[in-house]
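ok so for the tutorial part 2 we go from a plain amino acid sequence to predicted structure tokens. step 1 is just haveing the sequence, like this:
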Amino acid sequence: MSTIEIKSMNYESFLNRAYRLDRRIRRPSKAEFQNLVRLESKNESISKNLQELKDRLEKACLIFLDEELTYQESENIGMLRSLIAQADTSERIYECAARGLVMTDRFK
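step 2 — the prediction. this is what the tokens look like for a chain of 108 residues:
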């Protein structure tokens, strides 16, 4: 399995946890992340796709914040939201999703 496939699966898994808690958001797809990587590799503009992924990750964080979290979990999600806002590449988006997976492990 390629590295991009694994990274896109992590992105999708994190968003799926939020989707299970609140089905009002659009169902996640690993193709969203793969499209961003493809655009980056072609040196095309990624701003629209990047912003869409950042918005989706932000919505997921807000869904988790609506749950009964411990103080530490709330702080971690707050830190994750800050990292998402600063993300400027697909690699940074992946890192945010990977951290989010660890932080929301109890919502499997």
